[in-house]
Structures are given as C-alpha cells and as structure tokens.
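writing this on my phone so excuse typos. first protein, seq and then structure
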Amino acid sequence: MYFVDVVDEVETAAERHRREVPRGLSLRRVAVVLVTAAIALTFISFFRGPGTLMTLFPGAAEGNSEFKGLVWWALISIACYVLIPAVSIVAMRGSFADYGAGRPVTTRSWKPYAVLYGLSLPFILAASFLPGFQAKYPFYRLVEEEAIWPYLAVFWILYALQFVALELFFRGYLLFGLSPRLGIAAVFVMVVPYTMIHFTKPLAEALSAIVGGTALGFLSLKTHSVWWGAALHIAIAMTMDVLALWHAGFL
C-alpha cells in the first residue's frame, strides 16, 4: 500500500498537470530535461577519466596519481550532475525545491531507507567475498602500511559528495522533471540511464541498481526529497569500501 499510495498521488498530479498546463510547454520541459541529462552523462563519460586529467594537467602524473585521478573523477561527476541541470532549471525559471532539493531532512522519513539498508546488507556482505567485488573495491587502493589519512579519508569525503550529486541528478532532476508529464512512468525512465552508469561494475551490482533505483525513485516521490536517499547511497558505498578493506587485510 505504501507504493500504491505513491502511484495514486503522482498519477493524480500528472493528470492535473496535463489538464492545466499547455501541451507544448509541458512537452518542452520533458525535452529540456532529457536532453540536458544526455549532455551531462556524455560529459561525465568522456571527461572524468584520468586520461583527461593528464592531458589538461601533465604534472598530475607525478606523486600519487591514483588519488589525483579519483579526485578528478569525483569533481567532474559532481559538476556535471549538479551544475549542468542547474543551468536548465534557471533557464526554465524553475525552483530547485521542485526537483527534490527543497524539503529539509526530517526524522519522519528515515524508516523505509533504514529498511532498505538492512535488506541490502546481507547481499553486500555475501558479494564482498566474490573476486569481482574485491577487484573493484575499494576505489582508492591503499598500499602496504599506508594509513587511511590523508588520501583515503579525503577521497571518501569527495566520494560521499559525489553520491549526493548523483541523487540530486537521478532522483531529483530527472525524476521530478519528468513526473509532472509522465506520471509514475518517470521512475522507470530514470532507472534506465541510472542502470547504465553501473555497466562497469560487477553484474550483480548492475542488476541490483535496477531494483535499488526503482525503490529510491518511489521513495523520493513519496518524501518529495532526495536527502535520505543520498544518505542511504553513501551508507551502502561506505559499507562496500570498508568490507573490501577488511578482505584486503587493512582492517
């Protein structure tokens, strides 16, 4: 019933939107959101790799190049996930509050996200024993006798901010930008590119992105906010990194 209520609420709002907003204006907004999303994802794909960093800043190859490459990856991701959609929101004279960023974090909405984390935890723990998982995580690989501070700790901060930006993009900009016209179908439109950014991950993680992305989409529409979803995403990512470090013998 929790999800049925979301469907009823979103579909009722979409029907009202289609009656009250001129069709041309409504479709133009959908086109702007989808094209902007395509541009942002294209820029991320082509420019966040370490090769771009080395091309722009040849001196970055010196010192801890792995750390610098990951910092570049995080900064480009954050910029494309947040700044490019922000330009279109301002151009459409919209408000960031309309895209899941306006509601303050409240304790009333945390329970379903805690349930999702609890359901995910056994699968994450089981996956952490697989070679594919251990080959992918942690993103920043400590060398022998290297401490968590400063490089891993700094990267974790940027890693967390990257997930906030990701939630603002997928469960915020895409979802709330499309749902007034598409209704609940916007959740499944959003899940397609969200799953595709996981194609470089292990197969199990990519498949779980379909389920997780759909659940987070429904919850964002229910709470009208992306913030608890960002907290859940960070918690899962940190759990995966910590488990990987444990398997590698650093913890």
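second protein below, same order as before
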Amino acid sequence: MDTWFAVPETNWKTALLLVPALAFAASSASARRLERHFKVDARPIVTIHSPSGTVTVKAWTKSEVLVIADIASEEVDLGAAQDGNHVDIGTRLLSNNISPSDLRADYQVNVPENAELQIHNDAGGVTVANVLGDMSIETVAAGVDLQDVAGYLTVKTVAGSFSCARCAGRIEANSISGNFNFVDTHSTHIQAQTSTGNIIFSGEFLPDGEYRLRNYSGVIELRFAPGDSFDLSATSLKGKVNNEAKLIPPKHSFRSSPREGDALFGSYNAAGRARVSLTSFDGTINVVKR
C-alpha cells in the first residue's frame, strides 16, 4: 500500500509533544468535507490514523466502507486507500509546519459489522458502535467509548478514559491515568489496569469468567446483583477495602491478609462461579450492591 498516506514519523513525534494543545485547540478555518467509498468482502480490516480529532465508527449492512472526513484546514488532506480487503484511512500532512489547530480532522466511518478495526488517535475521541470484529485502539489523550461491540478488544491510552457499554468478547485495557467504566458487559474475560485512574465495573459475571481489575491509586468499584456468583479476591496494600457482599470464607485458603492495608477473600453464591480479582496499591476498593 502506498506509504504517502501515513503521517511521517517526525511529524507523529511532533504531534505527541503537542498533545496538551491538541486536546483544546479549536479549528482556525472552515472545515472541508470529503467522502470516499470502498467495496469490501467479508471481514475487512480497517485502519485509521488521526493525530487530532474525533473518530466515529458505526456498523451497517452494506459490503462497503464509507469514509466522511471533516478537515480543519488546507494544510492537511484525507488519505484513504484500499489494498485488497484492507482499507487504510489517515490524515495526510501537506506541510512540515502545521499548527495544532490545523491538524484536526473528524472522521465518520461506516463498516460491515464483522470488520476488524485498528485505530490510533492522539487527541480528540474514539467512538465505536455495533462492530463485532476484533479491534485494537491506541490513544494518547483521546477517550474511547465502545457500545455493543464484541470480538477481541484491546485498548491502550495514556490519559484517555475508556467506557465499554454492553461489550462482549475478550477485553484487555491499559492506561496511565485514564478512568475505566464497564457497564452491562457480557464478557468472559476482562483485564483492566490503570495507574492513577478509577475503575467501575457493573456488568454480568458469566460462569467461569475471569475479571481482573488493577490500579495503583484511585477507586476500584465492583457492583454486584443478588443473582451473581463469583469467587472474590480484593487487596489494597496501603488503602481500604469496603464490602457489602455476604461472602463465604474459603474453607482451605493459602491466602493471608497483608501486614499492611486491607484484603478480602471469599465466595458469593455458589453455582457457576466467576473469578474476580481486585488489586490496588494505595487506592480504595468498594464492593457494593447495584
């Protein structure tokens, strides 16, 4: 595939250094709207690169990828090309001296529901709805909002938040300072780790599912319903564990409470137990009814 659509490495590095400005910069010129259409087969791969702006991806029933881009200035253009069943979309730089506000491009992309997504967005936001294929999303300051998606989902942010509503499949999320919010999820495997962010989980505990939530500081909140069933391990080395669940202590436990901090081990209900692990260094862990 032609490489001229990709942002040069030196410009990507410059964009990363300008992230604080990108997050709040306003467009300095009237946006141009550009549109591209690509016919695809089943399970296409769609790659999107954006240094600044919103990326919105929605599924539809057509065997086609539709790209609509609102470009902030004449200094950038839409780069979109197809190689077989792979569609590559990105912001094409037309100058080496571009202001942060001129980098902005907002993308609206429609894809078949079984498409595989690979998205990189530095500043702005990423929203994906009703896409059932695997996806990998990386951002710097951009937040990520997933709704009604499935497949193998990997999300990595530096400072962006992550929200996952009615998500299924396998979910792995990592951030430095972003907050995570899992709402009404239907996943058998969730692994989420953030350094200084908060994590809220209010989803379904599937039989034999595994749910691992970890942070360094902040709040981890697990919300459970009366019909849920899980084995729980919750530990905060320097912080506090608050619990509203009536747990059955393990009969033969090799675990012991840490000398510092707080820990909690036990089972909630019996049949089809999921495995839940909550770990923090000096944050607060809340196990509460929903």
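Residues 1-29, 254-259 have pLDDT under 50 and may be disordered. thats all i got for now
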